[in-house]
């Protein structure tokens, strides 16, 4: 007998789930995917909505940008991961509106009623009000951004290989990364390794010692959110590898191939063929929309202020999780950071809480388990702080690698990443140096 099929709200669902509560999840990132996995196979109807048809493992986007791995190594199709669950419907599209009073989300010309809504729409890049800079400085928040950086860097090297002008060649071999957080440090370190070692082996006209990677940050040290000892170790390693650190500098202007940075000693002008922006993020516009429709509060960054159960004031059926929420119900009162670890825990806890309420069972309060922070700043070199255990160097890199493989939601990608990392260690050759056609 053929397996019974159904399509939630588009045509009548199966008899088993016809009267089951409907949970709508907006966003298929870390938090949304974890919530969906937790609800899979339960007696609830689940509709997962995302503007992409894949889950993106954002912590490794810099490896796509620098040619270490391909796009498919960090992106997993949502239907492959969730399609076999009989109670989950996946819809590709963007939510246009939310009506908390009617408990309806608008998806194009469709309206989906929900009993419970989980908003996990994530965040986007922020240029702090200078949106015009995005035309000249590529952010790194999406797969398209990472592939654009890779295309720009590799195209610049190809042009440099054939140009007779030494000044232009120097410009093409230069990269500026704005933002000294984990993403900026990881991107700068990986691009620096690409420019120096790939040039030395694969290009005949280019001098790898003329390659220049500059990391710009307004703070006095990179990785300011980490322990000062580990931060210093990361900065020293970046300098040893050839990355120039311009600390205490704020970007004042960006134009094509050029940016101006203000420092204590006066303005500094940097010229580079590639400029990357990792300096800030902004919550999804759905947060502002939800505030307008429901009257919920936003914090200074524009994130939705949530209750201890991640609901918004006056609407216990709406939960906001991940980068979009401002959760300050912690021991120190500081909001949880927008990272993969907290997002996964939020998504799982909210899904479990919904199930417990539907079954009229008690559910313990959310308690975030902080396993620490880490960042990789070069081949076989990373810094990690695991609840006070400070690691740096190869041991830190090993812990970093194991942690990222553990968080990777797809087994096939885990195997692919491990294989390519081992190949890189042995040969120093990158596996994804193709220049894709522009979309």
How would you explain this protein's 3D organization?
The protein is of the alpha/beta class and 439 residues long. It has two domains: 146 residues, FAD/NAD(P)-binding domain (3-Layer(bba) Sandwich), CATH 3.50.50.60; 202 residues, FAD/NAD(P)-binding domain. It is built from eleven helices and 26 strands. The longest helix has 21 residues. The protein is globular and about 70 Å long. The N terminus is likely disordered.
Overall form: globular
Major sheet characteristics? 6 strands, mixed
Neighbour order of strands in the largest sheet:
5-2-1-9-22-21
Rounded mean pLDDT is 91
What is the strand tally?
26
Strand content: 25-35%
CATH class of the largest domain: Alpha Beta
Find the structural class using helix and strand composition.
alpha/beta
* Measured distance between first and last alpha carbons: 44 Å
Rounded to an integer, what's the Rg over CA atoms? 23 Å
Task: Write the CATH fold name of the largest domain.
Answer: FAD/NAD(P)-binding domain
Number of helices in the DSSP assignment:
11
């Amino acid at each position: 007998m053929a397996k019974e099929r159904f399509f939630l709200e588009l045509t009548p669902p199966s008899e088993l789930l016809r009267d089951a509560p409907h949970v709508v999840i907006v966003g298929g990132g870390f938090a949304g995917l974890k919530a969906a996995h937790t609800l899979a196979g339960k007696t609830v109807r689940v509709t997962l909505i995302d503007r992409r048809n894949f889950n993106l493992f954002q912590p490794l986007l810099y490896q796509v940008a620098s040619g270490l791995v391909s796009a498919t190594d960090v992106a997993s199709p949502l239907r492959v991961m969730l399609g076999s669950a009989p109670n989950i419907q996946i819809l590709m599209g963007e939510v246009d509106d939310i009506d908390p009073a009617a408990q309806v989300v608008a998806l194009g010309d469709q309206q989906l009623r929900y009993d419970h809504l989980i908003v996990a729409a994530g965040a986007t890049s922020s240029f702090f009000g200078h949106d015009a800079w995005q035309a000249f400085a590529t952010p790194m928040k999406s797969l398209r951004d990472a592939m654009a950086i890779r295309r720009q860097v590799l195209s610049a090297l190809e042009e440099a290989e054939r140009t007779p002008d030494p000044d232009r060649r120097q410009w093409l071999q230069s990269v500026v990364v704005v933002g000294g957080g984990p993403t900026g440090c990881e991107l700068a370190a990986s691009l620096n390794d690409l420019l120096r070692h790939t040039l030395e082996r694969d290009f005949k006209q280019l001098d790898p010692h003329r390659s220049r990677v500059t990391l710009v940050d307004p703070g006095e040290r990179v990785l300011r959110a980490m322990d000062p000892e580990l931060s210093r170790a990361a900065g020293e390693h970046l300098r040893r590898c050839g990355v120039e650190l311009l600390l205490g500098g704020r970007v004042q202007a960006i134009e094509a191939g050029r940016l101006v940075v203000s420092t204590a000693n006066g303005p500094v002008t940097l010229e580079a063929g590639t400029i990357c922006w990792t300096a800030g993020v902004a919550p999804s516009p759905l947060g502002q929309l939800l505030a307008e429709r429901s009257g919920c509060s936003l914090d200074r960054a524009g994130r939705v202020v949530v209750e201890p159960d991640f609901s918004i004031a006056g609407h216990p059926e709406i939960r906001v999780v991940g980068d979009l929420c401002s959760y300050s119900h912690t021991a120190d009162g500081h909001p949880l950071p927008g990272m993969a670890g907290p997002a996964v825990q939020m998504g799982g806890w909210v899904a479990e809480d919904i199930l417990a309420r539907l079954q009229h069972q008690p559910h313990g309060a959310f308690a975030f388990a902080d396993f620490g922070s880490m960042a990789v700043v070069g081949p076989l070199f990373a810094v990690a702080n695991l609840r006070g255990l400070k690691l740096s160097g190869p041991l830190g890199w090993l812990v970093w690698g194991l942690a990222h493989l553990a968080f990777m939601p797809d087994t096939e990608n885990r195997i692919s990443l491990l294989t390519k990392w081992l190949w890189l260690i042995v040969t120093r050759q990158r596996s994804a140096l193709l220049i894709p056609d522009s979309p």
